[in-house]
């Protein structure tokens, strides 16, 4: 037993498509998503640190890089399906946990198993790093949908993904990094979209109005 299977499995993430079942102009994979989430988390961490908050960078990088590795076992299930009922979400989480534990026990050398159990466990928790991961994940999801909308994708699901991503970010609006995103980055996105999708502009402005209330 060695690390070969783990390293070999990383290529599997390049074969798993995001938003399965929907037409898309640009293919997004779990591997690419993981990298982009790590980059977004790094930016958010910088903002939090600049605001005077202490960031555990090791935890943040581990959480963001590994947060979707377990999709190697069950694939990227559509969000509406995954969260259809609490029972289904719990069942899927149990399957993920079981397959992950089996992978760690059988493919990871004993001296590294504790580290990989930590890295492959659920990273979205109440710590600052867990909350940053939650926001970074939604930022990438939002930009994936934004790109499809900008290209004229007729699938209505992308407008809904964009809307729900912003709504979820509002749940973390007390964070300095989220305030920065909403007040500094989001207006740039609106300006960049000025001559394209009016519905997207309306959704974004509605979210900003909620922030100001």
TrEMBL record:
SUPFAM superfamilies: HD-domain/PDEase-like. InterPro entries: HD/PDEase_dom (IPR003607). It comes from the Bacteria. The keyword Hydrolase applies. Keywords: Hydrolase. The keyword Hydrolase applies. GO terms for molecular function: hydrolase activity. This is HD superfamily hydrolase-like protein. It comes from Paucilactobacillus oligofermentans DSM 15707 = LMG 22743.
